[in-house]
Amino acid sequence: VQVVESGGGLVQPGGSLRLSCVLSGSIFSIYAMGWYRQAPGKQRELVATITSGGRTNYADSVKGRFTASRDNAKKTVYLQMNSLKIEDTAVYYCKREPLNRGPDYWGQGTQVTVSS
Question: What's the whole-number mean pLDDT along residues 3-27?
């Protein structure tokens, strides 16, 4: 099973980025997927989750600015990030959430830097 994120980069405050996460070696449609981030010196935190049925949940800090979505045919989950703030700077990770006490799988992360 592989989880591969892409789409990170450098953006100015107020800008937008869209992260993508592709899952391979696994059925995709039955799993919830999560986006997490870790800023320097801080613990990894949950950003958003999307269930197999497409229901989403967001951290308070990103509500109204970030949108998670999924394309089961492409085995891909997205994180659309708008109105980015300097404090959104972090490495963003994608995770295949565990199902019925099974394993979870993490990607290697993609760097998002918000700076003027």
Answer: 97
Quickly state the pLDDT bin for 101 (edges 50, 70, 90).
confident
Residues, the chain, total? 116
Beta bridge partners of 12: none
pLDDT value at residue 29: 93
Q: What are 48's strand-pairing partners?
A: 35, 58
Instruction: Taking residues 4-32, report their average pLDDT.
Output: 96
Q: Give the up-direction half-sphere exposure of residue 26: CA atoms within 13 A in the CB hemisphere.
A: 25
Strand 56-58 with 45-50, pairing: antiparallel
Q: Which tokens belong to 44?
A: 């990894």
Predicted confidence at residue 102, as pLDDT, reads 86
Residue 79 tokens read as 């994180």
What is the rounded CA–CA span in Å between residue 56 and residue 68?
A: 7
C-alpha distances in angstroms, 74 versus 1, 8, 19, 23? 15, 19, 14, 9
